Amino acid sequence: MNKQQKIDHAVAVAKHAIIRDDICARSVLVGLKEIFDDIPEEMITASLSLAGGTGGASGSCGAYCCGLLAVGLKYNAPLEEELKNPALKQKSAAKFSEYRDRFMKEMGTVMCPDIHKKLFGRSYTLYDQKEHDEFLAIPGHQEKCAEAVVAATRLAAEMILADEE
């Protein structure tokens, strides 16, 4: 597969996963795992905790966070190397800042409630059971949330594949 085919494949798998499982965060990593073998299964398992605006707390978008984790896996230096050479931290920061800025340009925000407002016309407080139930009852909410999953997956894949020949 060429770069674009890899990106398209990761996005398609991630989109299928969000529609099937209704877990934005994990869906991004499921898609990226299709084209990047170095994403550990344990990271995918742990990513459930980032759903619903990081732990259901209506904070940062889980899809955004998992794309950021994948970019960090590629570009962040191991701690031991960073401690020996603190300049490596700045190189990593440049990459995660680029990802953040690209996601914000596309989605307008990195915050789950603000993405809800953009996609559904209002925000939902997912740790409030009544609002969480209202959110889950929206017909096709997975397809709408797939917009953030698709953006996060595509942007992370583009950045990680940027250095590929």
Question: How would you characterize the overall build of this protein?
Answer:
With 165 residues, the protein is mostly helical. The protein has one domain. 70% of the residues lie in helices and 0% in strands. The protein contains nine helices and no strands. α1 packs antiparallel against α2. The longest helix is centred in the middle third of the chain and has 21 residues. The chain is globular, with a radius of gyration of 16 Å. The relative contact order is 0.18.
What's the structural blueprint in terms of helices and strands?
Elements: H1 3-21, H2 24-33, H3 41-47, H4 62-75, H5 79-84, H6 87-107, H7 112-120, H8 129-137, H9 141-161
Helix pairs in contact: 1-2, 1-9, 2-3, 2-4, 2-9, 4-6, 4-9, 6-9, 7-9
